Amino acid sequence: MNRKKKRLKLGKLILFIVSIVIITFGVIFGIKKIFGNSNIIIKKSYDKYLASENNVVSIYEYSKNEDGTEVLNKYEDITRGTKISTKNDKFTYEEKEYTLINYNDKDYYVLSNELVDNEKDVVLEKNKFVRTSVTVYKNEVDSKIESFIKKGNELEILDYDKLLDNGNVNMYKIKKDDISGWVYAKYLVNDEDSALANYNENSVYDTHKDRKYGSRELYGGKASTLDYYPYERVSFEDNKLLETAKSMYLNAGSNVINNIDSYLDIAKNNGVNMIVVDIKDGALAYSSEVAKEYSMTAYNTAINSNEKYKSAIDKIKEAGINVPVVAGIMPITNAKQVSRAVQMSGTSIIPYHFKMMVDAFGDNPEIMKQAGIIYASEQIIDLIANGVKHIHVYTMNKPDIAEGIMNNISEILK
Fold this sequence. Notes:
26% strand, alpha+beta
């Protein structure tokens, strides 16, 4: 009886093995029937990243012309740093090697040299040129300054900190001669011609050189101050900005304020839609009541009466030139800033109230910092109370000062 059971089990095992062999041969035969007798190689997919010397990478679609010629047509540009998959299938087109990739579940081709294994290696640029003179920082995490490099210089790219959402670099680590450090990428361009655009052979910015009013030259200001970085225009729903601004600058002299109608005629005849008027030109532009509290000297030496200055501003607004005026406040939070501010402004007049504060607290950095924040807060409160709606605070990369001011006026801003 036991022998019969063993033979039965052995027979079942043999039958199972034979079944597996038959099924395996059947699968292989079926695959060969479908794909022919060619050798079948299943390729493994690899994750890679799109890399470029610019912020985007071009991807291409494969097709054939009517005569059977294989072509690649550009499909779109996508942000460098994008992760894709590939089986490393190659295709040569117009003497350039392309690799087949899968992106968003569709197959495209991309230049083989624009694929890298590591995400950190997606930035391929090796040099850049300075378009706007740049500050070189010691590192990428704070505002400690290493040096300064002028417009037009070529920089060697050593590293970068991070990519922005559009594929552009935030900061590059660079080297120029014996200078090395970190600079903001937005001030750099790819070639020397772009870096020096709008400059003549003497490196002078003279776009406005030939502008005239009648027979009088209108040079547009000191050339070296006109080359600003071209920031993209922002837009606010409650404060529409001018699409094109044609500006006139007026100093605070009494001959200007008393003859404002003549300047408005010039503005009208030349399409001016924005006028900048000094509120302080060495001395105060007008005898502000606010100045009386802090410095009688400043009040008594004002260039114009409050009434005449206000009348000129009202005429400017009536002429349809009403771009909001932004008041600038620079908090003075250490004693060294006072001498620097006096030197830059060209005046020796220091408001009495402010001088007393510096004399009392200038030797104690923490107390002086707190007093400076309070003083700046009081200035802002006074401006808001007098109807000023736009205030720019120059915190000079010191967010704790901005935070201190915001805490002092938080309820007023609600």
